[in-house]
C-alpha cells in the first residue's frame, strides 16, 4: 500500500471526529468577525492633479452636510481628504487616485489610493526652517483629526485610510 493510500485509510478509520482532530480544533478557536456595517457613500477616481483636490474637498463637504453632521465633522473630513489627496498628487507620481467615503452609525471613513511610489522631498527637511512652512505636516493633521489612521504601501501604490468619529 502506498503512503498516500495508507494515510487515507488511517484518516478514514479515525473518522472526522477523532480525539486528535478534536483537540486541534479546540486549540485553534475560530475568531468571530463582526459583519461590516459601514456602507459606501461615494467612490470617485480622478487624475492626480492639483485640480482634483478642491473637487474632493467639495465632495467631502457635501457628504457631511447631506448627513446633517456637525461643523467639526465637516472640518475634520475636509482637512483629511485635502491632505491625503494632496500627498498623492505631490508624492506618488501616480497618474490617478481613487477615493472612497464610507459611513456607519459612529464614523465616516475616507480611503485614498494611488498607483504610484513615494517620492521623497528634493531637499532634506530642515526642521527649524520648515516650522513656518505651509506644508509638511499633512499626516500629522490627519492623525489629529481622525480616531484611526492607517498607511499601507505596496508595489501597486499606497492606500491611506482615516476614520472620523461622528
Can you characterise this structure?
Helix content is 42%, strand content 25%. The chain has 166 residues and is an alpha+beta fold. It is globular and about 40 Å long.
If strands are numbered along the chain, what order do they take across the biggest sheet? 1-2-3-5-4
Helix content: 40-55%
Rg value:
24 Å
User: How do the SSEs run, as a string of H and E?
Assistant: HHEHHEEHHEE
What's the overall average pLDDT, rounded? 79
**Count of separate DSSP helical elements:** 6
Spatial gap, N to C terminus: 66 Å
Number of strands: 5
- Sum up the overall morphology in one term: globular
Unreliable stretches: 1-28
Structural class, judged by helices and strands?
Answer: alpha+beta
Largest sheet composition: 5 strands, antiparallel
Strand content: 15-25%
Annotation keywords:
166 residues, 6 helices, globular, disordered N terminus
Brief summary:
The protein has 166 residues and is an alpha+beta fold. It has six helices and five strands; from the N terminus they run ααβααββααββ.
What secondary-structure arrangement, pairings included, does this model have?
Elements: H1 3-14, H2 19-27, E1 39-47, H3 52-66, H4 71-91, E2 96-103, E3 107-114, H5 127-130, H6 138-145, E4 148-154, E5 157-165
Antiparallel strand pairs: 1-2, 2-3, 3-5, 4-5
Helix pairs in contact: 3-4, 4-6
